[in-house]
Design a protein that fits this description.
By secondary structure, the protein is an alpha/beta fold. The protein is built from 16 helices and 14 strands. The protein has one domain. The strands form 5 sheets. Strands 3-2-1-4-11 form a 5-stranded mixed sheet, with helices on both faces. Strand 13, helix 13 and strand 14 form a beta-alpha-beta unit. One of its GO terms (molecular function) is glucuronosyltransferase activity. It holds the Pfam family Branch. Its main location: membrane. InterPro entries: GLCAT14A/B/C (IPR044610), Glyco_trans_14 (IPR003406).
Length: 446
């Protein structure tokens, strides 16, 4: 009988390959049971064990907290430390061919160890100029020690009237957000800009201001600008070519948008970190929508940030309509700033503005500003309380660095404070982004 039995009969009892998986499963089950019993899955914040984030149907009436957009919005509204620490400013200084020395001079005039700096020399500059700029930054002992000055490695063509200037600015902002958490405002300057106050003056005055304020000159686009800027469609060759040229005009024209209201103003801004985080991470997609719209817009640097801020409820009331620059315009239609000279110095001082533009290369008025307004010796930093070295023999007192949280404000701080008091007065405050919020479009339906 046994000889005629099926060869595989009794395999279930003789094949022991089931034993290892069985004991492995048993071991995992026991481990999970013991872990649950002894609280190994308990939340480190005191929550109940095994408290996973499942959405309860009983709470579906308020589901906003489960969406990332709501978390982003809440992050921008977090209360700040009640202690008013001195601010830090992120600067972008831009230049083109032949601007290496001017960029370094402007950097020295606005330098402070608390701040962050990015230098962008556009693609029109030859490689030797970029190497020269990078080398001068690397060999400077102060820059090397503090490590707060960067030269943008990726150079871009920048056409002022096209969107390439916006692209370059947003790239610098993204780098600042990624590499440094310690800054409160962002300021863009060109090599033809120059300060009229020291950084001690600026940081001292801004210490007592809300970090949410945005200084951006803005006004709704009306009149001739609607036809000459909003309706034409242009192409910026800097986005596609390797050689700079003027923008291309197409024959097509477009209607005005109904989704948002257009604003325009100065391309020179001082923007808060919270607003720029929104421009980079914007939870409702408006910044990216407007970025695409302004890709084919005439003089888009004079409209992009302005339109974003004035169409965003969270930031609309933070916009102060001033670019913090003294600018002398040409004769009507006042579309181009003329170069400032010695005869403009009195007007610069009276304006209270912390910056001025534009200056011709090595104009004598710059030496006058260095001497009378900044106290800056040639080829040295504009001094501040952080400079504790000796100036004997013409040496730079800023070569020895002290406490960068201590300031020594001068008369420039008083001029700036007077300007800000005027800008932040109740009358001007009520005119920010001058259109009724009820007229704005509800973007959630788009």
């Amino acid at each position: 009988m046994r000889k005629n039995a099926h060869p595989h009969s009794g395999r279930a009892f003789t094949d022991r390959r089931w034993i290892p998986p069985f004991f492995a499963s048993l071991l995992v089950s026991v481990t999970l049971f013991l872990a649950t019993s002894f609280g190994l899955f308990s939340s480190p914040h005191g929550k109940d064990p095994l408290s996973f984030d499942f959405i309860s149907f009983a709470r579906m009436e308020d589901t906003s907290e489960y969406f990332v957009e709501s978390n982003l919005k809440r992050s921008f509204g977090r209360p700040r430390n009640s202690k008013m620490e001195a601010p830090r400013i992120a600067y972008l200084i831009s230049g083109t061919k032949g601007d290496t020395r001017r960029m370094r001079r402007t950097l020295q005039a606005v330098y402070h160890p608390r701040n962050q700096y990015i230098l962008h020399l556009d693609l029109e500059a030859p490689p030797r100029e970029r190497i020269e700029l990078t080398t001068t930054i690397k060999i400077d002992p102060t820059f090397r020690q503090v490590e707060n000055v960067r030269v943008m490695a990726q150079s871009n063509l920048v056409t002022y009237r096209g969107p390439t200037m916006i692209a370059s600015t947003l790239q610098a902002v993204a780098i600042m957000l990624k590499e440094s958490i310690d800054w409160d405002w962002f300021i863009n300057l060109s090599a033809s800009d120059y300060p009229l106050v020291t950084q001690d003056d600026l940081l001292h005055v801004f210490t007592n201001l809300s970090r949410d304020l945005n200084f951006i000159e803005h006004t709704p686009i009306i009149g001739w600008k609607l036809n000459q800027r909003a309706r034409p469609i242009i192409v910026d060759p800097g986005l596609y070519l390797s050689k700079k040229s003027n923008i291309f005009w197409t024959t097509q024209r477009r209607s005005l948008p109904t989704f948002f209201k257009l604003f325009t103003g100065s391309a020179w801004v001082m923007l808060s970190r919270s607003f720029l985080e929104y421009c980079i991470w914007g939870w409702d997609n408006l910044p990216r929508t407007l970025l695409m719209y302004y890709t084919n817009f005439v003089s888009s640097p004079e409209g992009y940030f302005h339109t974003v801020i004035c169409n965003t409820e969270e930031f609309r009331n933070t916009a102060v309509s001033h670019d913090l620059h003294y600018i002398a315009w040409d004769n009507p239609p006042k579309q181009h700033p003329r170069s400032l000279t010695m005869k403009d110095l009195n007007g610069m001082v009276k304006s209270g503005a912390p910056f001025a533009r534009k200056f011709a290369k090595d104009d004598p008025v710059l030496d006058k500003i260095d001497k009378e307004l900044l106290g800056r010796p040639k080829d040295q930093f504009a001094p501040g309380a952080w400079c504790i070295g000796s100036s004997d023999g013409g040496s730079d007192p800023c070569s020895l660095r002290g406490n960068d949280s201590v300031f020594s404000p001068g008369v420039g701080a008083e001029r700036l404070k007077e300007l800000l008091q005027k800008l932040l007065s109740e009358d001007l405050y009520s005119k920010r982004c001058s259109f009724q919020a009820s007229n704005s479009v509800n973007r959630s339906v788009h």
